[in-house]
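Quarterly update from the structural biology core.
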Amino acid sequence: MSPDAATISSSTSPVSSSSWSDLATIALQGESIARADALRILSADDDQVLAILDAAYQVRREFFQKSVQLYYLKNAKSGLCPEDCGYCSQAKGSEAGIDKYPMLNAERLMDGARKAFESNARTYCIVASGRGPSDREVDHVANVVTQIKSEFGLHICCCLGLLKPEQALKLKDAGVDRVNHNLNTSERFHDEIVSTHTFKDRLQTLDVCKDAGLELCAGMIVGMGETHEDVVDVALKLAELKVESIPVNFLIPIEGAQLGRPVDLDPRYCLKVLSMFRLTNPKTELRIAGGREVNLRTMQSMGLYAANSMFVSDYLTTPGQKAEEDFQMIRDLGFEITAGDYESSQLLERFGKSSSAQQV
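Predicted structure, tokenized:
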């Protein structure tokens, strides 16, 4: 059963396919659809899924053609986090069996950047657990990024938690291009999943990063017990913030994490969510992130008719499906693959694919 199923009237009137095409027309003009239409997508009957997905694909094809940008997640610092985010295996109070280690040293971070450069990857990501970095950690990352930019000129993305204005400026000055900082859920539902920081704290970090001139990557986790209103709230907030990239995660139940599985997600609902995000954020890179294997299951490939980006292989602390299965799925769609970072490019090479965009 998908979220809000108990609150959706069984007499909900079906929406004609032409209505969904009208939404595509609005989005093709680069505009976000109205809130009421976004809610209609999420509550639509399942027999409308293909029509909704077709509308999303019209927009995806216009702005991103048939390309699929691949990324591979990796931790520069794992666990050791004082925050109590209920969904996270790295959070305070989590009993999940994960590796824990402090920030990697400059040599290891530079080695990763070197490999990224040699594989013709576009982006090098530095991800660290925790509430936010200390000034010492920011100095460390900034110094390494300066070296990376000088030697390799890579696009740099950092995910370091809550940032202060001076920290964001230091990262920007060092050469960081983009910061990932997810909203995770709506302001209304935020306190249900975490108590150690506020929704405004998260918005403030996005604001200071934007003010510093950094690109923004921000998304959400679907399936934590939120309502349709909450999901739409996040999509429209991200449209308002004009973020460059949106990762949409579908909750993976992690043994030992505080949050279990309050809602069972079905693949049709997940496709409606992805389509809604595409139509509310037509020109934004939309990524199918964690949980696609668990929640989209046999319908994973259909998600790429709305999204134009995905993580390949494993996630931060949970495994994904085998990389060769990801590549086969994309080949079967007739789409083009672009490797975004070192690990995804190496996986492409391992299975006989070029690390640059190509028709498959």
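The mean pLDDT is 81.
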